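Deliverable D2.4 — example input (structure tokens):
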């Protein structure tokens, strides 16, 4: 009898964390490494938010809170959803967790039974399928390749739905591609969902405010009010507010589902950090002016990275609408040999050789469900990005 749970054999460690860890190890060993794997802004948390956290400490707000968040933060979330998305929720319909990942996991744990299917468009965030597996469900991936701008079509969604389908996990703008669905594109999907009342929608709106070039963000329950009662709208303060380490995510949805998620959280982690919750109140209620300034920086970086990668032989890099990732194709690099003599049969080998031969760390596409590609996070300095892209160009020029 194995000491470890059989469930553990169904999942794998996070590839993005593995890449970041490997880059850190090489850097500690003295290698000149540029890490483009981490999905977090390189900006400091804005001062007003930091000050709110400090005040919470000074005012003694350091004790246990309600298991899924203080009422002040839940109200701030309700106000944000009304202001930004036109969605009406009460605090009883809101759950606050230790990051967006916990919110998604709690919902899956609260709803999935063995055999239940969860549709996941690919490319996907690496954790979605494994969280479904840990919760006892079956991930059903729908590949949306470069030919559809990495967006799932209504026909693909319709074909993937079965009597066993319980959830669709929907992420826009996307990690890893940065692709974002327009109102009309999303309406086509919600029209399909309206024909299948057993399917619920779990949105991952974490990159909502990181959209560029006049793109207008929208979320499923906003586009189709008929889905309100079977939608869990998930978000957090990590990306737009540069608060990755504060670990605050949240969701709004039907009271019965929120209560079930609360029960799970009360018997696992209990409440998120109290100080982080008060900082998140300020993030949602306070000034939002810094978001536009940060986005201007992201646009500049995106444009530089897209242009430089498209200038690399064998690489084709679409320009995304949001987030801070690009997801270039290396189809024309497959089968070639690197300057050090490594033959490239797939994107994992490409990424490994790139790291070993040039010191540039990226995440290979197979980790996100669509190959042959790799993901670049451009949430780092202009100088680092320029140097990394120059090395990628030189690496590709040396392929034979």
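Example output (designed residues):
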């Amino acid at each position: 009898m194995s000491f470890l749970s059989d469930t553990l054999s169904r999942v794998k460690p996070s590839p993005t964390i593995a890449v970041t860890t490997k880059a850190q190890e090489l850097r500690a060993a003295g290698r000149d490494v540029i890490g483009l794997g981490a999905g977090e802004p390189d900006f400091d948390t804005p001062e007003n938010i930091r000050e709110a956290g400090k005040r919470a400490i000074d005012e003694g707000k350091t004790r246990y809170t309600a298991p899924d968040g203080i009422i002040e933060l839940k109200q701030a979330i309700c106000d944000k959803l009304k202001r930004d998305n036109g969605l009406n929720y009460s605090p009883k319909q809101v759950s606050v967790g230790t990051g967006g990942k916990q919110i998604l996991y709690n919902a899956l744990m609260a709803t999935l039974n063995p055999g239940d299917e969860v549709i996941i468009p690919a490319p996907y965030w690496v954790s979605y399928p494994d969280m479904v597996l840990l919760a006892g469900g079956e991930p059903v991936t729908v590949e949306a390749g470069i030919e559809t701008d990495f967006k799932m079509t209504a026909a693909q969604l319709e074909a993937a739905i079965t009597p066993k389908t319980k959830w669709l996990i929907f992420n826009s703008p996307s990690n890893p591609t940065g692709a974002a669905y327009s109102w009309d594109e999303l309406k086509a999907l919600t029209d399909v969902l309206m024909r299948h009342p057993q399917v619920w929608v779990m949105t991952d709106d974490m990159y909502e405010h990181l959209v560029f070039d006049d793109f207008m963000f929208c979320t499923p329950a906003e586009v189709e009010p008929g889905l309100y009662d079977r939608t869990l709208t998930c978000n957090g303060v990590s990306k737009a507010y540069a608060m990755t380490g504060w670990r605050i995510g949240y969701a709004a949805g039907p009271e019965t589902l929120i209560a079930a998620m609360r029960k799970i959280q009360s018997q696992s982690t209990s409440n998120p950090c109290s100080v982080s919750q008060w900082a998140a109140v300020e993030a949602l209620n306070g000034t939002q002016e810094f978001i536009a300034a940060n986005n201007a920086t992201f646009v500049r970086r995106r444009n530089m990275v897209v242009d430089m990668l498209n200038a690399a032989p064998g690489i084709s890099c679409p320009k995304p609408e949001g987030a801070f990732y690009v997801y270039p194709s290396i189809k024309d690099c497959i089968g070639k040999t690197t300057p050090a003599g490594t033959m490239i049969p797939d994107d994992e080998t490409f990424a490994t050789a790139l790291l070993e031969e040039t010191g540039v760390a990226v995440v290979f596409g197979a980790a996100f469900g669509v190959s042959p590609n790799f993901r670049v996070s451009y949430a780092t300095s202009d100088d680092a990005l320029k140097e990394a892209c120059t090395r990628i160009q030189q690496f590709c020029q040396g392929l034979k």
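The chain has two domains: 6-44+290-397, 63-285.
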